[in-house]
Amino acid sequence: MSELAAHGAVPWYRALDRTQWKALVASNLGWTFDGFEVFALILTVGVALHQLLDPSQYQFIPAYAGAVIAITVFGWGLGGLLGGVLADYLGRKRSMTLTILAYSLLTGLSAFAWDWVSFAVLRFLVGLAIGSEWATGASITAELWPAKARGKGGAFLQSGYPIGSFLASGVWLAIGSSGPGAWRYMYLIGVLPALVVFWIRRNIPESPRWEESNRRRRAAYHLRRQGATLEGENAALVRFTLIDMFAEPAVRLRLVLTFIMSLSVTIGYWGVSTFVPAYVGSVAAAAALPAQRYAALVGLIQNLGALAGFVSFGFLADAFGRKPTTMLYYLMCLVLTPVVYLWVKDINLLLAAFALYGFFIQGCFSWTPIWLPELFPTRMRATAAGFIFNAPRLISAIAPLIAGTLIVSLGGYGKAATIIGMFYILGLLAVPFLPETRGQPLPEGDTLALAEKPEGVARLA
């Protein structure tokens, strides 16, 4: 069947076996839980701070909210570095179970915060655990799915985030008006994903690519213990993966370019989308409409658009390539930010605009699970993917803080969002310098320092 599928004789989905679908389901669930957790914070941070702060500080809630979200994103960045390394050394499956268990339990503890400082500390720890999960799912999906459908697999994985956000919006819509302690119930619900760990342990196999890479790594360590002089791939295998990424010029170039792309989209998303519920709530309140209801409603609508954006990215990337699809999404993010924050004032039209906005500003992240695993060899794949996806958060963690400060100083959301949205230009400038990898086999071997072609990634020996 795989030979027929390769020639397009059967639909792409029929070429996938049960193991590949199960790996995708596990990865998608992990990212769904992350999406629930992060969007639950966005939805509830204002309400939580009203309960955790002294009334005299209420006027500074946007700044406090920006600080809490920034601390969470900072923890996410550190966790991403840790999670990628763990996945390359401990294995994809084991790392996935550990990270899901960790952030489920820590989310539950967030419900017991007693002031804004304890809340921020707990959110940092949750961010640390959340950041550790993504690289594992992206790596195992890319390693198990066939090249011609890999874009779709990565997009389906990434679509878990808006699904989780959608669920969080629905839950908040149902319980948000139940009282001042409703935000605590949201975090208690976040404990439930821990139950999925048992299913993953029984049903998901380890990646054969990682197992082979780990076998070679152990063999290289054995040679070093015997006093052998290591060269080529053996020398690379015994280097710490975070150091290994910077040891080869070709890898360094890809790291720099993808880091710039990830930084721009991360700053744009966290600096702008963080305040969507509060912004729409303020527009609704000005029209004498219930702010809480419209804040939850825009979350549902934006994440429906995001879900379509994530999935569409995968199909477009498999059909037309990684480069043109990524450039289209970055361009639309740049254009739409001032549209929704400055020019659309009618509440119903604004809700529709945020559906399109979600399609691009969140769907834009689909390039990361699709393109990143195709740029790095197995021995460092999760570390590199985790570094690029999460390390920019160590910088972009200041974006919500800056945005919150700008909102206060500029007296509104529109100008602040437009300023932060300009960062998408950086991504647009970096994309053309990366190789096109559509339909290419995943890189293996001891080096990427081969003759780099304008299009395509050479198969490694």
Q: What attributes does this structure have?
A:
461 residues; mainly alpha; 23 helices; disordered N terminus; disordered C terminus
Q: Topology, please?
A:
Layout: H1 2-6, H2 18-52, H3 61-90, H4 92-110, H5 116-144, H6 150-158, H7 160-175, H8 182-189, H9 196-203, H10 208-225, H11 232-237, H12 241-244, H13 249-272, H14 276-286, H15 291-320, H16 322-343, H17 347-361, H18 367-371, H19 381-390, H20 392-396, H21 398-410, H22 414-421, H23 424-430
| Spatial gap, N to C terminus | 27 Å
Give the overall form.
Answer: globular
Give the tally of structural domains: 1
Q: List the uncertain runs.
A: 1-7, 449-461
Percent helix, as a range, is: over 70%
Structural class: mainly alpha
Q: Overall pLDDT, averaged?
A: 82
Report the strand count: 0
Radius of gyration: 22 Å
Report the oligomer.
single chain
CATH class: Mainly Alpha
The fourth-level CATH homologous superfamily is MFS general substrate transporter like domains
CATH topology assignment: Growth Hormone, Chain: A
Q: So, CATH architecture?
A: Up-down Bundle
Q: Which range does the strand content fall in?
A: under 5%
Q: What is the overall number of helices?
A: 23
- The SSE string, one letter per element, is HHHHHHHHHHHHHHHHHHHHHHH
The main β sheet shows up as: none
